[in-house]
Amino acid sequence: MKAIAITQRVVVEPRYGERRDCLDQAWTQFLLKCKLTPVPLSNQIIAARELCERASIDGLILTGGNDLSIYGGDAPERDATEEMLVDFAAEHGLPVLGVCRGMQVIQHRFGISLKRVTGHVTSRQFIWIDGKQTEVNSYHEFGATETRPPLEAWAVAEDGVIKAIRHASARILGVMWHPERRAPFAPSDVALFSRFFGVD
Fold first, then answer.
1. What's the whole-number average pLDDT of the chain?
2. Phi, psi (degrees; rounded to nearest 5) at 188
3. Rounded to whole angstroms, how far apart are CA atoms 101 and 151?
4. How far is CA 125 from each of CA 20, 29, 114, 138, 163, rounded to the nearest angstrom?
5. If DSSP codes are grouped into helix, strand and coil, which group holds residue 153?
6. Total domain count for the chain?
7. Of 173, 155, 161, 6, which Cα lies nearest the Cα of 106?
8. How much is the pTM?
9. 144 and 113 in contact (C-beta within 8 Å)?
10. 3-state helix, strand, coil in the chain (%, to 5)
């Protein structure tokens, strides 16, 4: 199976004064279903880059959780690490798939401004994917209603908030729903991840 580097959210544990890197165990189950092996990365630039180099990764997933610092988030170390990782992926020609916050990281990188949105924190939401109405989940409070080249929108909510993007020429993709939180996992999500990372 292909090894896919995957980022983690920062969780503050006030009882112990700890800043923890955390990954929902559902991510491992979902990626195994996609015939992918997750390689969790710490939110530390040097350690994350070293692991990516030594593990010979085949791609990168930017997960959800933590708002970007520019929008009031409290995990600047994650912002810096993910910025480095996107650079690393570009240097090595690796595919990048962003989920929720991960898609926002991609949008921010290409100069897309986000704004606060309402009605996008729900376990069920109907959106339009390539012109077809589809049900997904949604757990975000920031979004965009416009994009620009080289990014293009391929899924949109009924209120115009963009729910998925792709790069016109590079292997970069983003979705605002959480495939790992669907039970059972949606076959369409499994197919999307498998196809994007080139699983035979």
1. 97
2. -65, -35
3. 16
4. 31, 23, 20, 7, 11
5. strand
6. 1
7. 173
8. 0.97
9. yes
10. 30, 35, 35
Condensed to tens digits (0 to 9), the pLDDT of residues 31-47 reads: 999 999 999 999 999 99
Please say whether the beta carbons of 6 and 39 come within 8 A.
yes
Q: Which two tokens stand for residue 12?
A: 């503050």
Token digits of residue 1: 């199976």
Cα–Cα separations (whole angstroms), residue 34 to 39, 105, 173: 14, 23, 16
Give the residue-averaged pLDDT of 63-87: 97
Residue identified by tokens 């491992």 is 28
DSSP state of 16: T
Q: Which CATH number characterizes residue 78's domain?
A: 3.40.50.880
* DSSP letter assigned to residue 186: P
- Residue 51 sits in which domain range? 2-196
Question: Known catalytic residues?
Answer: 100, 178, 180
